[in-house]
Amino acid sequence: MSLKPNAKVVLEVRDLQTYFKTDAGIVKAVDGVSFKLHEGETLGIVGESGSGKSVTNLSVMRLIPSPPGKVVGGEAIFEDRDILSLSEKEMRSIRGAKISMIFQDPMTSLNPFLRISTQMVETIRLHNKELSRQEALERSIEMLRLVGIPSAEKRVRDYPHQFSGGMRQRVMIAMALSCNAKILVADEPTTALDVTIQAQILELIAKLSAKMGTAVILVTHDLGVVAGMCDHVCVMYAGKIVERAQTATLYAKPAHPYTEGLIKSVPRMDTSKKGERLYSIEGQPPNVIDLPPCCPFHPRCPKAMEVCRHAYPPLRDLGSGHEVSCWLYVDEKERVYE
Amino acid sequence: MTKYIINRILGIIPTLLIIITLSFFIVRIAPGGPFATERNMPEVIKRNIEAKYHLNEPLIQQYGRYMFNVLRGDLGPSFKYKDYDVNYYIFTSLPKSIVLGLWAMAIALTFGMSAGIMAAVRQNSWVDYLSMGVAVIGISIPLFVIAPVLQLFFAMKHKWLPTSGWYTTGEGWKSVILPAVSLSFAYFADIARLTRSSMLETLRSDYIRTAKAKGMKSSTIIFKHAMKGAMLPVVSYLGPAFAGIITGSIVVEQIFRVPGLGKFFVQSSFNRDYTLIVGVVIVYSVILIIMNFIVDLVYAQLDPRITYK
Q1: How many domains in chain B?
Q2: CA-to-CA distance for B285 and B55, rounded, in angstroms?
């Protein structure tokens, strides 16, 4: 949460487009996403299922299953290079070493056939060739201790099925950070976990990323998680970022009607009256196959206007990095469409 | 684990006793008998023959006598072949069938698994189509077509390999190649298809995505991370397949004149050769039981989530 002013940008994604070819047509899962990630920052990416938040990160990691998926446009600048155009070999030296990733379901994300030690040592030695097996094992144990695995020197010999879900996610975090990654991409890291464990895991990610100076991209659909963890938030809808702001600004003054709806639908202890029904946004997210030029949110939007049906709204800066893509913030004179 | 192994081995005994009992009675229910011929046999001769083979005794007494002999390791005299007893026929032919089966299985495993893995890794490429095409051919073309074609090409036309025989006769180990290759075809096809589908499934799993996200090379991912999981269905297929390949090689044995067990498996039932049928059934069951036992042990070795107590 402590973002220094003028912090260096570690990752800049510009106009990323990832399409999937399906029998029904081309699915524009990510369509023109741009964001900057600063050193030591935690960036939240929020959105409903299918809004393209996971695909954005898998695209940056170049892990989109291809076919059917393909990154068709844009760039991702990391250490002065566009990692979207690197060779597979160069990319491998970045994955797991400089940008690592943890996933939604810790129950299936670890290889059930290999010991934790095998899986951790291979990662460490892959990116630190000078380390011996023994040194790598020691480093693994140290990492497991760091993420709070009790009697780590014994448990490192265990298989994944001998750990609980929360413990497995801790192992995943230990593995992801074992090579001092610059960026940790956490793709819904707590969705599959117990509510009581969720807080612990988030706290652990926050603590370790601060300690190791790792920038974090936190993908989630839980606005409560974002509020506690992130410096900046991007709100995604139908493959595009519709609003971005500092977390405090976003909660205090949500600009996009979609963000407003999302925030209203978070249950609150302090202001909600007893017996009051929870707010929910009407309707379903749109099918992103062959989307006509329009604001994809307009069928569900309480403030929809005629222009929303005919053209995609441009991005407008509301000051201090608060950007929103909605016709409400465009001068009436400029609301033109063919 | 040791306790489990001992328990499993002890469990073989009652299983076998039940199999022997069932097959003893079932073959006798079948119409006809070992000495039923179209010509009418004089009553005296018939009675003499039946007395010689104890067929005139009540069935339960015959069963008791047979069981007693089996437990001593004697499978009894053959009802059809007069020269030797069942033990001799089985134990001279079984090793040949096992050798042929092992060779065929080794060929099927090596090529089947490599073809399956390559097809899965390069899904929808020409490698995939080629290996799956060969596999479909292996499944759909019967052995009695494949084997003579191989004989014609490799033995008759180019004279690289002998047409028939066994390694004890004349040409040595060379004579094993053609029958083993012919026999392996169907199993190659099954193994290739099985490996491909389970490999594809494994490669789509979450933990393979993790391995990729860690920066692993695809060769390491395939052989270190995906192989164990992808092998499980193949391993469970191997148990029954191996029992089948040893006893079911009748066609290949006939075509290549291999003096194996397959011939007895088929002819003993035609001849109602009661003792030989039950003898071959015992051999088949023992192989099947042992193979399934080995498969279970290998399974536990591959998958750490499985433990036996």
Answers
A1: 1
A2: 26
Burial call A268-280: b when 16+ CB within 10 Å, e when fewer: eeeeeeeeeeeee
- Show the tokens assigned to B296: 């279970």
Instruction: Examine residue B203 and state whether it is found in any structural domain, yes or no.
Output: yes
Q: Each residue of B177-195: pLDDT tens digit?
A: 888 888 898 899 999 999 9
Asked if A67 and A87 count as a contact pair (C-beta separation under 8 A), the reply is no
**ipTM reported for the complex, 2 dp:** 0.85
Q: Is B79 within a domain?
A: no
C-alpha span between A80 and A71 (Å, rounded): 20
Q: Is residue B23 part of a domain?
A: no
CB contact A175 to B (< 8 Å): yes
> What's the CATH number where B186 sits?
1.10.3720.10
**Which residue from A minimizes the CA distance to B301?**
A113
The domain of B213 spans 90-262+295-302
Question: Would you mind telling me the total number of residues written for chain A in this entry?
Answer: 338
pLDDT at B196: 94
Token pair, residue B202, equals: 């494994």
Report DSSP state, residue A95. Answer: B
CB nearest to B205's CB, from A108, A159, A172? A108
C-alpha–C-alpha distance, residues B218 and B58, integer Å: 69
- A110·B224 Cβ contact <8 A: no
Partners of B305 on chain A (C-beta within 8 Å) are 112, 159, 161
- Asked, for residue B45, whether it belongs to a domain, the answer is no
Q: Which of B214, B215, B304 sits opposite A113 (nearest CB)?
A: B304
* pLDDT class of B21 with cuts at 50, 70, 90: very high
Q: Which of A314, A321, A302 is nearest to A258 (CA)?
A: A302
Decide if B302 touches A, using CB distance below 8 A.
yes
A44 vs B159 pLDDT, higher one: A44
